[in-house]
Amino acid sequence: MVDLVREGALALITLNRPEALNALSFAIIREIGAAIDEAAGWDIRALIFTGAGEKAFCAGADIKELIGRNLMEERAGAELGQQVFAKLDTFKVPSIAAINGYAFGGGLELATACTFRIASPKAKMGLPEIKLGLIPGYGGTQRLPRLIGEARALDMILTGRTVSAEEALAIGLVHRLAEGDVREAAKALAAEFTGYGLPALAFARAAVQRSMDTPIAQGLRIEADLSTLAYRTEDAAEGLAAFVEKRKPLFQDR
């Protein structure tokens, strides 16, 4: 139900349950975690997520599995989703959600855990848990405000409304809308950063991520530390030399 393939420097994870709009059963969440772990062992430069079929990236949780659980099972389910999606926070290369259709509930939470989001113009997104008497449990209440701000996040979460791809772009929920096939657009986006050195990409991501939880004075110190580390890499020496010599740098990820 989760396919992992490698295409050159890219790893692609596809939620492959189109008959159920790629809904997230607990088994699928575990498979996503296993696929992320396997991809971590590959020599890749970007990780792309998408959904099988033309209708959905992922329509959210498998509702039938949520009924009749006890308190500890409910807590374990939330922690499972959070732990699997959190793997992307520290994954060694940037990740991209290629949102090819519906992205609701846990599907949108998976997308917001990715570094980038690119959507088909026909995509629809939302966190509709409130309509079931629930709230998002796989990170939605934490990541969405960090992406689009508290006011807009509360609007989406408390009303459970659906936003169009155009609105998602306008509020910063997605980075770009695809022209043509969204999976190919995601690969094109990946090509914009895969030529850079992995150490610098990792330092830059870490600096931005850590800024979300710290006062600006502490964040500036973090940036200074990571910037200094970046200068000490062989890639930095190559990049500076290439600039002076007016040539394209050849990064070695060192």
UniProtKB/TrEMBL annotation:
One of its GO terms (molecular function) is hydro-lyase activity. The keyword tRNA-binding does not apply. One of its GO terms (biological process) is fatty acid beta-oxidation. It holds the Pfam family ECH_1. The keyword Transferase does not apply. Keywords: Lyase. InterPro entries: ClpP/crotonase-like_dom_sf, Enoyl-CoA_hydra/iso, Enoyl-CoA_hydra_C. Belongs to the enoyl-CoA hydratase/isomerase family. This is Enoyl-CoA hydratase. The lineage of its organism: Bacteria, Pseudomonadati, Pseudomonadota, Alphaproteobacteria, Hyphomicrobiales.
